[in-house]
């Protein structure tokens, strides 16, 4: 660890929240991490190194933010809650020696700068799903305790918009972690698994118990690691491939020849595209990997309808 930092403990987290009048809300999916060991595990499994530019979504009261700064990272924290965004600079400045708060204009991020003039923490007040650009150098990693209610949309959105991200380590609901890391053919493989595989290889790295959070959620959490890789070699666009993925899983029990008939224009056209792609028309979507979906999109020859944000999860 490159910086002398005291992480937040349970008593201080509750004191900070009380002083600011913050009550964790289900609407924003807020569950604050109380345990410093869990914070350091997240940072360690993300392979954060000194000088890395790391984006954190939903810093909350700053538990993970301090862990990232302790590892020597320069952090861009995207926070949707104005109260928490205002509280974070004071908390970090108190825990990390030598940082000065540089307040920007009303529409500019707040920056915490060290004595050498290096921007160690930049706080962006925004909905992560609306962020298309980040201040400063491009981030190489996304490390976050993602709010349960938007974890998949945020993950897929950032992988799409920030191709500088080489790796991602997120804490999400355990069930969601299983779906994100599921291989083709497994019971939990679906839209999130296939779309995430377009950008990166995924693996679940650890289970996180409920007791490390405040308030304690009703479910366990897990850490999922993503390592960026090139998408499948294909002439089809990402939008076209994702349209095929959405159609394939719209009704999971349907064979692909039926599931893709509307997208293809007819059942016969769907069968022809599937056979051309080397995919059994009687197979179901959960048997097809992202390269297979790309081949199907190529043989369909058109992008098909794509609606909504890139992280929409099937029911």
From TrEMBL:
Ranges in a coiled coil: none
SUPFAM superfamilies xref list: S-adenosyl-L-methionine-dependent methyltransferases (SSF53335)
Reaction catalyzed: adenosine(1518)/adenosine(1519) in 16S rRNA + 4 S-adenosyl-L-methionine = N(6)-dimethyladenosine(1518)/N(6)-dimethyladenosine(1519) in 16S rRNA + 4 S-adenosyl-L-homocysteine + 4 H(+)
EC number(s) stated in the UniProt entry for this protein: 2.1.1.182
Described purpose of this protein according to its UniProt entry: Specifically dimethylates two adjacent adenosines (A1518 and A1519) in the loop of a conserved hairpin near the 3'-end of 16S rRNA in the 30S particle. May play a critical role in biogenesis of 30S subunits.
GO molecular function: 16S rRNA (adenine(1518)-N(6)/adenine(1519)-N(6))-dimethyltransferase activity; RNA binding
Keywords: Cytoplasm, Methyltransferase, RNA-binding, rRNA processing, S-adenosyl-L-methionine, Transferase
Gene Ontology CC annotations of this record: cytosol
Organism field: Cellulomonas xylanilytica
Subcellular location: Cytoplasm
Protein name (database record): Ribosomal RNA small subunit methyltransferase A
HAMAP family linked to this entry: 16SrRNA_methyltr_A (MF_00607)
């Amino acid at each position: 660890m490159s910086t002398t930092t005291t992480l937040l403990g349970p008593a201080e987290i509750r004191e900070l929240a009380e002083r600011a009048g913050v009550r964790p809300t289900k609407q924003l999916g807020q569950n604050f991490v109380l345990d410093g060991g869990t914070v350091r595990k997240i940072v360690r499994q993300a392979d954060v190194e000194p000088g890395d530019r790391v984006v954190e979504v939903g810093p909350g009261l700053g538990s993970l933010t301090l862990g990232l700064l302790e590892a020597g990272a320069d952090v861009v924290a995207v926070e949707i809650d104005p109260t928490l965004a205002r509280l974070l600079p004071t908390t970090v400045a108190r825990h990390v020696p030598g940082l000065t708060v540089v307040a920007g204009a009303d529409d500019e991020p707040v920056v915490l700068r060290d004595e050498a003039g290096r921007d160690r923490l930049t706080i962006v007040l925004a909905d992560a799903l609306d962020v298309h650009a980040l201040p400063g150098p491009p981030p190489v990693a996304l490390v976050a305790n993602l709010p349960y209610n938007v974890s998949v949309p945020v993950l897929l959105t950032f992988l799409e918009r920030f191709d500088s991200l080489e790796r991602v380590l997120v804490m999400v609901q355990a069930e969601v972690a299983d779906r994100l890391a599921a291989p083709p053919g497994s019971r939990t493989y679906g839209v999130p698994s296939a779309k995430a595989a377009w950008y990166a290889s995924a693996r679940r790295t650890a289970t996180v118990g409920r007791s490390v959070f405040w308030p304690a959620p009703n479910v366990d959490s897990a850490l999922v690691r993503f390592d960026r890789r090139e998408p499948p070699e294909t002439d089809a666009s990402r939008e076209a491939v994702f349209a095929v993925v959405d159609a394939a899983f719209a009704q999971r029990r349907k064979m692909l020849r039926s599931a893709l008939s509307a997208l293809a224009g007819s059942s016969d056209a769907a069968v022809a595209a599937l056979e051309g792609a080397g995919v059994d028309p009687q197979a179901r979507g959960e048997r097809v990997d992202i390269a297979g979906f790309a081949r199907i999109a190529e043989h369909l020859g058109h992008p098909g309808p794509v609606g909504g944000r890139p992280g929409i999860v099937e029911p």
